[in-house]
Amino acid sequence: MRRVSKLAAAVGTAAALALSATACGSTSTESASSDSSDSAKKGKGIALAYDVGGRGDQSFNDAAYAGFEKAKKDFGIGGEDVEPSDGESDADKVQRLTDLARQGYNPVIGVGFAYAKPIEEVAEKFPKTTFGLIDDNTVQADNVANLVFSEEEGSYLAGVAAAKATESKVVGFVGGVEVPLIKKFEAGFVQGVKDTDKSIEVKTQYLTQPPNMDGFSKPDLGKEAARGQLDAKADVIYHAAGLAGQGVIEAVAAKDKWVIGVDSDQYEQKTLAKYKDNILTSMTKDVSGAVYNLVESVQNGEPMSGESRFDLKSGGVNLSDSNPAFTEMTELQEAVKEAREGIVSGEIKVSTES
């Protein structure tokens, strides 16, 4: 099984596509520029099946969409992106992926670990189609590319930043759903805080427990959790809660405290513009680059397969520096730089478990 680990540069957010309804949720489509082009011969283009919360979360799903849009433009291919439906089952995901593969899309990408079992089932039926699975490496097949990230490393830097920014000596972490993936965010963040200042208290709260995935999609849950932590004197809160994280951001901004975003640079998200001054930084994941790389590999006739890990050393995870207030915090910047160097060199080992 060939393994590819190269990274593409981060891509910008593209214009939204028109939505149309389907049985498995809503989709947006665009035809290839020329059916006779070399790229069109490789299939209809890229298909993207979103995670809970869907496009418009200003975070994880939107990062995947940015890579989707850039790949379509650069390679002159078509594409279809499909929204999840509320309370859907694995059978719904299997049907969605099957429909996309049958239509000739290649690659077909499942955005999020919830697609692991469905992709395992469908990939076996379509061996000539490349399937991308983001945030999960458990599916082992020649036509499956596992696009995974070292979230704990970026979260460690977020913890260092929080420890340097807090004045109350209380910081918070809000996780969407208590699953192993989000526990990695928590573990890295708490370790970063404690390695910087052991006296700082870290408040941790998860919005829902599996199989209830509402913690990734309901902003009101995030808002309520953040208010509770703010009442407990937290003045910096880091969230890993997808669309629900928008509620965290809103609540923190209302109290004029600091919030740390996730996955995308949330300071730059237009729908969050009125809260941007309170978004200290964001722990970014180059989901857009991972999506782009996979499409590029298929277009080049050498599709990625197996695990590709996007870590701090490669730029696959990082801290954004869009907020001028963040870059002006000299002591914070020095601490983050030192921590970054320690992780990249191997001197600092970041735990994936709290």
Unreliable stretches? 1-41
Mean pLDDT: 89
Largest sheet properties: 8 strands, mixed
Q: How far is the first residue's CA from the last residue's CA?
A: 33 Å
Treating each run of at least 4 consecutive H or I residues as one helix, how many helices?
A: 11
Report the strand count. 14
Strand content: 15-25%
Shape: globular
Q: Using only CA atoms, what is the Rg? A: 20 Å
Encode the helix/strand succession as letters. EEHEHEHEHEEHEHEHEHEEHEEHH
Helix fraction bin: 25-40%
Question: What is the gist of this entry?
Answer:
Helix content is 37%, strand content 21%.
What does this structure look like?
- The structure is a single chain.
- The protein has 354 residues and is of the alpha/beta class.
- The protein is 37% helix and 21% strand.
- It is built from eleven helices and 14 strands.
- It has helices at residues 38-41, 60-75, 90-103, 116-125, 151-165, 180-196, 219-231, 245-254, 287-299, 324-327, 330-345, and strands at residues 20-22, 25-30, 45-49, 78-82, 108-110, 131-134, 144-149, 170-177, 201-208, 236-240, 258-263, 279-285, 306-310, 317-319.
- The strands form two sheets. The chain has an eight-stranded mixed β-sheet with strand order 1-2-4-3-5-6-7-13, with helices on both faces.
- α3 packs parallel to α4 and α5 packs parallel to α6 (180-196).
- The model is unreliable at 1-41 (pLDDT under 50).
